[in-house]
Amino acid sequence: MNEKENNGVTSQIIDAPDDLRPTRIDRFLSDRLDDLSRSRLKALIEDGHLTLDGVPITDPSAKARAGNQYVLEIPAPRAASPEAQYIPLNILYEDAHLIVLEKEVGMTVHPAVGNWSGTLVNALLHHCAGSLSGIGGVERPGIVHRLDKDTSGVMVVAKTDAAHQGLSDQFAAHTVERAYSAVVRGGPRPKNGRIETRLARSQHDRKKQAVVKNPMSTHGRNAITNYETLRTFGQEPNAPAGSPMAALVECRLQTGRTHQIRVHMAHIGCPLLGDPVYGKQRTFRRIANKAGEKLEDFNRQALHAAILGFKHPVTGEALRFETPIPKDMQRLIDFLDQL
User: Fold this and answer.
1) How far is residue 138's CA from residue 292's CA, in Å, rounded to a whole number?
2) CA-closest candidate to residue 201, choices 211, 191, 215
3) Which of 29, 43, 66, 288 pairs as cysteine with 20 (C-beta 3.0–4.6 A)?
4) Catalytic residues
5) Does the predicted TM-score (pTM) go above 0.85?
6) pLDDT tens, 83-113?
7) Which DSSP string do the residues of 159-227 spell out, in sequence order?
8) 3-state class of 231 per DSSP?
């Protein structure tokens, strides 16, 4: 086993002996790298830091095989606490207890591998400097719900322990009003309905969520999305009359699981346009090609958190915020409206 360092990244070169019997790659590495826990190794593998012949291995359960040479890149350790950064924010409401804002497309909520800076948490630490009472004893903003990096829309963040607990209780009780605008491929059938499944991490790709197929299984977590078709666009070629090419759908969350709307809409055959993970890019490229330059800058899932309503966790006041569809999604809708 050899070790190299470059720009703070340590590369471990691990040779699998010729007499090795096929075994899980995370277990194989754990037996040879005493300074890294198995959970840390699994995280590094899932984030693409392990390669074989230059090709990333992202499944910790993949088999290590005799004669192979593996390279594990170990990033330099980061500071335990995120750093404050000046990043402009679109603030909708703020008081001593909480802050409501509209998150832009491309902003990650929490610092993580690949996004240690430029996140919403970094921006809030700067914006709220001196006004955070200390969530859990540490001066930091209280994130009670999240939006995916490429999903825009309204979010609420706690500034105090009391607000954090009160908001968390409301989200857990599913009493928060959350409505999303989504542009999907095709059109839901029926036009309005309710999707209730269990969601769990995909067995084929651990970065994805998937519907648990066995209706009797207790695996995963219950997920409920209520949807309403607001508009349909165009006619799908070579399909029966009344089969739209796309639709604008309002999705209301009764639960809030990771990627819930994206998985649920794909589950009923209507993936979000532009979704690189759960969508079918052939359909979006066909639409984008027709639009020409009008859609050249649309490179994300067509999903926007439009409405957020809740009770103020300290005063009890009913608060409700609604944000318009952002310009890039509106350009997409305007083009679809011409089909």
Assistant:
1) 50
2) 211
3) 66
4) 148
5) no
6) 899 999 999 999 999 999 999 999 999 887 6
7) SSHHHHHHHHHHHHTT-SEEEEEEEEES--SSSEEEEEEEEEE-SS-TTSEEE---TT---SEEEEEEE
8) strand
